[in-house]
Specification:
Blueprint lengths: L6 H17 L2 H9 L6 H9 L18 H13 L6 H15 L2 H13 L4 E4 L15 E5 L2 E12 L6 E7 L10 E6 L6 E7 L5 E15 L6 H36 L1 E2 L2 E2 L4 H27 L5 H30 L9 H13 L5 H10 L4
Helix pairs in contact: 1-4, 4-7, 4-8, 5-6, 5-7, 7-8, 7-9, 7-10, 8-9, 9-10, 9-11
């Protein structure tokens, strides 16, 4: 199999890395984190100017329709810079879901604003007991006149507080765990009955818990038939999340190598100590294995075979989760006590790797899912 990227893909990756290097320094990121919003609208506009918000939008609606491999390259670069803007949630997850729902009216209305970066649309699916179980949906929507009324609780919705509009998943029939009966609704965050509580997660990202009490929602797609679209969007987003972790590990290895070259003990850089060289070699091997699994995730996340998708993505999440933990822990130890402080980027890297590991199902969940899913 040819793993070489096209000239256009390489240019895309180089462009995003240049942006991160020139416009998203550690100091700039820290200032963004200090802001009330926890992310920068100016940076978001710059990402839109680079065409990144249009990456996963269909061409018919002003997008680039780039696909998982291009998204992987972008997420690698954004991961290296620990970019906190809502690219994963608003420019990957949302377009993936909207494209699969098959509602042309909603697509024509929402996609142009998503592509231009002018409108941030966030999917609100995760609930307190969802974790990796996509079908564990308890929020309910009842028919009321020409529309629906939604009641439920969404938890840890990435950048939920930044949403100009929400795509809320709710059950129109069945019970939690059923794949039938799941629907998606457009909801105005400012509607009566919507309560959004924003906060920061361990990795500096912003998230929100969203309460919905008697909230009016407009149905997108067919009622009760949204599971396949939600699952497909989750799988594409999981692939992108794996790619972000790989970018972070690359940055951690580079920072650790640089530190060990400058830190001296017994009159010489600690990078010359053979036992530490072995540690750094192991870190590199782990990150390379994670890179390979990220390629697998990007290639398989849209495979027509559902079991093949599940097994490949779960395998990638497990290997990348284990690699991220190993690389992060070794980096902290090689930096010594300084590695745990807020002043060094490596501590922020490790926190984000920890956050990624528990997002969309942790390592244990995906190991169980891999074992339970029949091989092709």
């Amino acid at each position: 199999m040819d793993f070489n990227f096209s000239e256009e893909q390489q240019l895309l990756a180089d462009t995003v890395r240049r942006f991160v290097r020139e416009s998203y320094s550690f100091e700039a990121r820290r200032e963004i984190l200090k802001s009330q919003e926890g992310w920068s609208r100016d940076v978001w506009n710059e990402l839109a100017g680079l065409g990144l918000t249009a990456l996963n939008v269909p061409e018919a609606h002003g997008g680039l329709n780039a696909g998982p491999v291009d998204t992987m390259l972008v997420m690698n670069a954004l991961g290296e810079g620990l970019v906190v803007e809502p690219f994963l949630s608003a420019a990957v997850f949302t377009p993936a879901l909207l494209s699969r729902l098959g509602d042309e009216k909603a697509a024509a209305d929402l996609f142009p604003g998503i592509a231009s970066g002018e409108r941030i649309v966030i999917v609100a699916h995760q609930e307190p007991h969802t974790r990796g179980e996509i079908a564990h949906l308890a929020t309910r929507a009842e028919k009321s006149g020409d529309g629906y009324v939604i009641d439920g609780h969404k938890a840890v919705i990435a950048h939920g507080g930044a949403a100009d509009e929400l795509l809320v998943t709710a059950r129109t029939s069945g019970k939690a765990g059923d794949t039938d009966g799941m629907s998606v609704f457009r909801v105005d965050p400012g509607s009566a009955g919507v309560t959004i509580k924003s906060y920061r997660t361990i990795d500096g990202q912003t998230a929100a818990d969203i309460e919905l009490k008697g909230v009016k929602g407009n149905l997108i797609g067919a009622a009760g038939k949204a599971f396949a679209a939600i699952e497909g969007a989750y799988e594409v987003t999981l692939s992108a999340l794996c790619a972000e972790a790989v970018g972070i590990m690359k940055a951690v290895n580079a920072a650790t190598l640089e530190y060990t070259k400058s830190r001296k003990q017994f009159g010489q850089p600690i990078a010359k100590f053979q036992v530490l060289q072995h540690r750094m070699a192991d870190m590199f091997l782990q990150s390379e294995q994670a890179l390979s699994m990220s390629y697998l995730a990007a290639i398989k996340c849209t495979d027509p075979d559902a079991n093949e998708r599940k097994r490949s993505l779960s395998a990638a999440k497990v290997i990348i989760g284990q690699a991220g933990r190993f690389v992060g822990q070794q980096a902290i130890q090689l930096h010594g006590g300084m590695g745990m402080t807020d002043e060094l980027m490596v501590s922020h890297h490790f926190k984000r790797l920890t956050g990624i590991d528990i997002t969309f199902g942790d390592t244990d969940f995906h190991l169980e899912q891999f074992v339970a899913t029949p091989a092709a």
